[in-house]
Amino acid sequence: MKVAIIYNRDFSSVINMFGMQNKEMYNKKTVGMVARSLEAYGHNVEVIDGNMNVIESLQGFMPKVLEGERMGMVFNMAYGIQGQSRYTHIPSLLEMIGIPYVGSSPAGHALALDKVITKIIMQQHGIPTPKFWVFSNHKEDMSAVEYPVIVKPKMEAVSFGLKIVDNQKDLRDAVEFIIDEFQQQALVEQFVRGREFCVGLIGNDPTEAFPVLEIDLEDDPDAIQSVEDKKRKPRQKICPANLPEKLAVQMQEESINAFKALQLNDFSRVDIRLDENENLYILEINSMASLGATGSYTFAANTAGLDYEALVNKMLDVAAKRYFGNEYKI
Question: pTM here?
Answer without folding.
Answer: 0.93
